[in-house]
Design brief:
- This protein is 42% helix and 12% strand.
- The chain is elongated and about 35 Å long.
- The two termini are 15 Å apart.
């Protein structure tokens, strides 16, 4: 869990996950799209954005655990 405003300063901390699958999620999908773009530009290989964010997830019957 990482706010968008701290992501740019945390790229080095996250570097051990460069080869892992990362799914960026926010409420509407806007901030997570920015975050996934930054991560991809920083060399992260398997970065995805949950399009529409948690709003779309909930509207489409997605489960939350």
């Amino acid at each position: 869990l990482m706010p968008l405003q701290t992501l740019a300063d945390s790229i080095d901390v996250l570097s051990r996950f460069r080869e892992s699958e990362i799914i960026a999620v926010c409420r509407s999908g806007r901030r997570s799209a920015i975050a996934s773009g930054w991560l991809a530009k920083a060399g992260f290989k398997n970065v995805y954005n949950l399009e529409g964010g948690m709003r779309a997830w909930n509207e489409n019957g997605g489960k939350i655990e």
